[in-house]
Amino acid sequence: MLPEGTRPSPNIWHHTDTYELENHAFDPDRRVEAVIEELGGWADRDVLDVGCGTGFHLTRFARAAASVTGVEPHPDLRAIAGRRTRRLAADRKVTVLEGTAQDLPLPDSSIDVVHARWAYFFGPGCEPGLAELERVARPGATAYVVDNDASRSTFGAWFARGFPEHPSPAVKQEFWAAQGWQREPVLTRWAFDTLADLEAVVRIELPGPAAEQALAEHAAAGGGTEVDYAVDVWWRRF
């Protein structure tokens, strides 16, 4: 049973192992993390990862954070995250909880850093979740939302073509600015071990015809195991 208001995430929900390949392939140069570090980082701070999925980022945050809390609505993913962080949980370093972005199971003013990557916060419509972030954030806290930038990069073009109904970059820019958030554009990449892994990930990230068109274009351009990939890091201090 999923909590009320859960937004489906078909890629990781239905293709968990393939999504793990994507997590490992994305941003091998740690450019997104470098932006977050430049803006204040998470060392010795209480961190919340909203929509933590299988907990891939929880262990990374835990290396330097004072504490890390992952919130995830999907029970199977939450169980994987719990197993992944079991040793850290025993030391109360990491906690994994059931919840949604718009109903966080945390006290008021309890978090220093909020991280959400491709989870819930996709522009207009996410206002209830933004209100929850404000509730749990301590004075001086910083929140970071990582989302696709469909205005540039190879993957951005694939994404724009595959999801024309998704809010345009201009709409998202206007929305986030109106909410008091700022944008840090990051050009990074996917770097897979094999072409088969890249193809599998493209097929869970894009609708069927769009995925096959993207893969055909990739092959015509020489193929390979890398794709340039642009994201936006939206951020705000409280």
Automatic annotation (TrEMBL):
One annotated GO molecular function: methyltransferase activity
Keywords: Methyltransferase, Transferase
Residue intervals of the Methyltransferase type domain: 48-144
InterPro entries assigned to the protein according to its UniProt record, in alphabetical order: Methyltransf_11 (IPR013216), Methyltransf_Superfamily (IPR050508), SAM-dependent_MTases_sf (IPR029063)
SUPFAM superfamilies the UniProt entry points to: S-adenosyl-L-methionine-dependent methyltransferases (SSF53335)
GO biological process, one term: methylation
PANTHER family, per the entry: METHYLTRANSFERASE
UniProt-recorded name of the protein: Class I SAM-dependent methyltransferase
